[in-house]
């Protein structure tokens, strides 16, 4: 295997493992000046296999340093997804002089000798900023007699009720447990049997509180990923519920299904724990792939990467509470705006071309939405390969097409169009961030996100913006390329 092949499609702005397989982000936490990203990792192969927790740290969420594997399989099983917390008040009794980190994760045991597979929750702790981990000798701390899908604990300290709360994926529901010490867990409630989408098994929950931006109202949000399925063209994806939580029961306030992302490649994402209060952000990271084809994507020596870290907020848009996502501000340092795109009119049948021969870039456009408008943005990877983003005012949709983007044959579903119907605001903003093998689009300030993998020979030679119908008026915008 040549080094070159090993590097092909390797992202510049996104975390990817040095080698072998990655899936869900785990144990996302900020502690003593470092962001920690643990991740589902098979260190023996480029396909999913016996799970470990890989580990990387960063000071700015964008440049990551991969460290040694944090958690290895043991007698209780392999290490599935989970979370991490700082045990500030030593509720566990694991710490002496200083607070440390506790990981709460699923032990997965395959079925053997006629016994079904078993998933249980366990603990590990670290007193040296996550560099070494000790498994708790009383593991597992939570198991279930009959449930086989019993995984992905996400834990936070509920300061209103003075207890730890765990959200756990339990088949087609999320079950909430509470604990004074992370060791003894008590059942609180079960949510979701007849709510939301059940196209796939429920996985990777995350529950947190938000102040709505427009109204300052307090709401709770529950993220639930739905696992691999062929029921729609979308495969595995993440939905969310907005509602209330009283320390025991979560109640949603709506009947419609709300998707976090309208692209196919944002799954199993959760938010960082212990972001300092003075920062106050809710920062999210997802796994940038889809179980429909994750094991087949055409990279060599390594496989899979994370989305860009995103700052989440809760917006009230036309009486609907919506999760807004935008890339974290730390990303700005990696870009230099070198082309202004201001007050530009492109008439029907005409187009404008920009050169972008760079390893990654950002394109931002603020566009007047006409009554009869149809336009396209083509990321021309090479002479023959392109990814296109199209807007049509009739259906009011933004669509991404990657059927000609490069390598696509590894999955039938990969080349099917992705689209989103957007609200009827007068302007349309598009922030497009393209890296070596991904295109992430944030529409109208992040009310809609569309995350997509692509496998072109080269990320982009040129970008063309063309009007297919009506006059396209761009008020404002820029093209940004890597800063030095
Ligand atoms: C989600 C998931 C989790 C599980 C992990 C196993 O992608 O299926 O439910 O813990 O991946 O790797």
From TrEMBL:
Q: Please provide, alphabetically and separated by semicolons, the GO molecular function terms listed in this UniProt record.
A: hydrolase activity
Task: Indicate the segments forming the Glycosyl hydrolase family 32 N-terminal domain, all copies.
Answer: 14-325
- Read off the SUPFAM superfamilies from this record: Arabinanase/levansucrase/invertase (SSF75005), Concanavalin A-like lectins/glucanases (SSF49899)
Q: Which Pfam families match?
A: Glyco_hydro_32C, Glyco_hydro_32N
Q: Which InterPro entries match?
A: ConA-like_dom_sf, Glyco_hydro_32, Glyco_hydro_32_AS, Glyco_hydro_32_C, Glyco_hydro_32_N, Glyco_hydro_beta-prop_sf
Superkingdom of the source species: Bacteria
Family, according to the entry, reads as follows:
Belongs to the glycosyl hydrolase 32 family.
Please identify the protein, giving its name as recorded. Answer: Glycoside hydrolase family 32 protein
Q: Record the organism.
A: Gracilibacillus marinus
